TrEMBL record:
<dbReference type="InterPro" id="IPR000847">
    <property type="entry name" value="LysR_HTH_N"/>
</dbReference>
<dbReference type="Pfam" id="PF03466">
    <property type="entry name" value="LysR_substrate"/>
</dbReference>
<dbReference type="InterPro" id="IPR036390">
    <property type="entry name" value="WH_DNA-bd_sf"/>
</dbReference>
<dbReference type="InterPro" id="IPR036388">
    <property type="entry name" value="WH-like_DNA-bd_sf"/>
</dbReference>
<keyword id="KW-0804">Transcription</keyword>
<dbReference type="Pfam" id="PF00126">
    <property type="entry name" value="HTH_1"/>
</dbReference>
<dbReference type="InterPro" id="IPR005119">
    <property type="entry name" value="LysR_subst-bd"/>
</dbReference>
<feature type="domain" description="HTH lysR-type">
    <location>
        <begin position="1"/>
        <end position="56"/>
    </location>
</feature>
<protein>
    <submittedName>
        <fullName>LysR family transcriptional regulator</fullName>
    </submittedName>
</protein>
<keyword id="KW-0238">DNA-binding</keyword>
<feature type="compositionally biased region" description="Low complexity">
    <location>
        <begin position="292"/>
        <end position="302"/>
    </location>
</feature>
<keyword id="KW-0805">Transcription regulation</keyword>
<feature type="compositionally biased region" description="Polar residues">
    <location>
        <begin position="309"/>
        <end position="318"/>
    </location>
</feature>
<feature type="region of interest" description="Disordered">
    <location>
        <begin position="289"/>
        <end position="318"/>
    </location>
</feature>
<comment type="similarity">
    <text>Belongs to the LysR transcriptional regulatory family.</text>
</comment>
Length: 318
């Protein structure tokens, strides 16, 4: 490819020095590439004297056939790369609890980058956080960690959040400025119902305090709204991350901060082996949006002085 490109430029310039300048190589390198090409063909393509450079009759015929074919190679590579970069189709995104501002910001950024993608947003129930992924009802889901499922892949994580306890305004905890994790032993915790895995349910409604005190289990619920309704009715407390609590403020529920528990964390989850260009693009967008707001922007590499040639586009070598 490099020899062919050299011949095409030389056929235009008919000057070894100017050809070298256009290709950013030395004049001797131009001569070397031409000799190599002529050796492959088995005949002279260029006549060179001290006064002029001209194509041989064979060189002229070769140029007439090579120029359109070489151009088609470049077009084929450009079209393939454009198709690879063009993300289009439909993305089905599941979310648990509430679509907080970081998730909606990631969606906004994704649509700005890939306007040809249509997005369906589907709520996932607490009782079945991973089922929609496995049943191919969604392509990706934003769910609470931990995720210890061998058939699922955990992608970028959103920022950690503190826990809030949702209780009835008449509950003794309702007037407290904050709670310690040990206080949970005095309040039954509303938890997700099966088929949600036990370890996942226990993370949101721990059966014991950090010091080992038993925490009573309240009603098992399928959805966030069921849990909030039970909390409002005084049947127990429900642990929610702060963004979800803020998104579900209501007069019949009091939210009290809880200290001493590992923080809540959301992550993007996909099914192992279902990687696509569309999911790749969305994962990159979530990773960009989930980065700390104080992260310094990465420096862009300096632009090359040289216009990309067909050889460069095909081989990736300047």
């Amino acid at each position: 490819m490099r020899e062919l490109e050299c011949f095409l430029v030389l056929a235009e310039e008919l000057h070894f020095g100017r050809t070298g300048e256009r290709l950013y190589v030395s004049q001797s390198r131009v001569s070397q590439l031409l000799r190599s090409l002529e050796s492959r063909i088995g005949a002279r393509l260029v006549e060179r004297t001290s006064r002029r450079v001209a194509l041989t009759p064979l060189g002229s015929r070769f140029l007439a056939q090579l120029r359109p074919a070489y151009g088609l190679l470049g077009e084929a590579v450009d079209e393939a790369r454009a198709a690879a970069r063009c993300v289009a189709g439909r993305l089905r995104l599941g979310f648990l609890g509430s679509a907080n501002h970081r998730m909606t910001a990631a969606l906004g950024l994704f649509h700005a980058r890939h306007p040809r993608v249509e997005t369906d947003i589907v709520e996932i129930t607490m009782a079945d956080p991973f089922g929609p992924l496995r049943r191919d009802e969604v392509d990706a889901a934003v769910v609470l960690l931990p995720v210890e499922e061998p058939d699922l892949v955990v992608g970028p994580c959103f920022n950690e959040q503190p826990w809030m306890l949702a209780v009835s305004p008449h509950h003794p905890f309702a007037g407290r400025g904050s709670l310690d994790a040990e206080d949970l032993a005095d309040c039954p915790l509303i938890a997700a119902a099966p088929p949600a895995p036990g370890y996942w349910r226990d993370h949101q409604a721990p059966p014991r305090t950090p010091r080992g005190r038993t925490v009573a289990r309240g009603p098992a619920v399928a959805t966030l709204q069921e849990g909030l309704a039970n909390a409002a009715a005084g049947r127990g407390g429900m642990l929610l991350c702060r963004p979800t609590a803020e998104a579900h403020a209501r007069a019949d529920i009091a939210y009290v901060p809880v200290e001493g528990l590992p923080r809540s964390e959301l992550a993007l989850v996909t099914v192992r082996g279902t990687d696509t260009a569309l999911l790749h693009a969305f994962t990159r967008t979530v990773a960009d949006e989930a980065q700390p707001l104080t992260a310094a922007p990465s420096a862009k590499p300096p632009a090359s002085r040289r216009e990309t040639s067909t050889y460069s586009r095909i081989t990736g070598v300047e």
